[in-house]
């Protein structure tokens, strides 16, 4: 019985992980090189997060991240989760310098459209366009921007 429950939990974790994310480019320390990322679409390119540095937004973003993203990207947003590691390619380290160097517009686009909606072949990242409001997506980005490199 215990083996059946463990197997069922493993299958559920992998199934859930498939909805989370990853990147199609060859990993560079668990994160693809910025040059390998697709170009940000014009309608997202110039978007800026007005909530960056806002303590209330960061706190709200942390809660949203833990509820929506941590299963794949890890509790520390470093890509260190069993589900994230099971993905091919693995879920990215959102604390990595090359990720942090990405524009607000790029990150907002990826959260909004996910992998498939952003036409990123191989990425299992789900789109959060209907799950999170615009403000909530910006709160998540404010939280990610508040993290130190890891």
Q: What descriptive keywords fit this protein?
A:
47% helix; single chain; Cytochrome Bc1 Complex, Chain D, domain 2; disordered N terminus; globular; mainly alpha; 150 residues
Describe the protein's architecture and organization.
By secondary structure, this protein is mainly alpha-helical. The protein has one domain: Orthogonal Bundle (Cytochrome Bc1 Complex, Chain D, domain 2). It is 47% helix and 0% strand. The longest helix is centred in the N-terminal third of the chain and has 17 residues, at 2-18. It is globular, with a radius of gyration of 15 Å.
Could you say which overall geometry the principal axes of the C-alpha atoms support?
A: globular
Main sheet overview: none
Structural class assignment? mainly alpha
CATH fold label: Cytochrome Bc1 Complex, Chain D, domain 2
Number of helices: 8
Question: Concise description?
Answer:
The protein has 8 helices and no strands.
SSE map:
Elements: H1 2-18, H2 42-45, H3 55-68, H4 70-73, H5 82-86, H6 97-100, H7 104-113, H8 134-146
Helix pairs in contact: 3-8, 7-8
């Amino acid at each position: 019985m215990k083996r059946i429950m463990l197997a069922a939990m493993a299958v559920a974790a992998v199934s859930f992980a498939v909805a989370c994310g990853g990147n199609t480019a060859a990993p560079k320390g668990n994160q693809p090189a910025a040059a390998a990322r697709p170009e940000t679409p014009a309608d997202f390119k110039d978007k800026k997060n007005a909530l960056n540095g806002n303590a209330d937004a960061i706190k709200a973003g942390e809660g949203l991240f833990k509820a929506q993203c941590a299963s794949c990207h890890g509790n520390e947003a470093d890509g260190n989760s069993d589900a994230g590691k099971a993905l091919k390619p693995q879920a990215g380290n959102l604390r990595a310098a090359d990720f942090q160097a990405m524009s607000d517009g790029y990150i907002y686009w990826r959260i909004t459209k996910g992998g498939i909606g952003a036409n990123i072949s191989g990425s299992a990242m789900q789109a959060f366009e209907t799950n999170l409001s615009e403000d909530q997506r910006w709160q998540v980005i404010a939280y990610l921007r508040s993290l130190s490199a890891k």
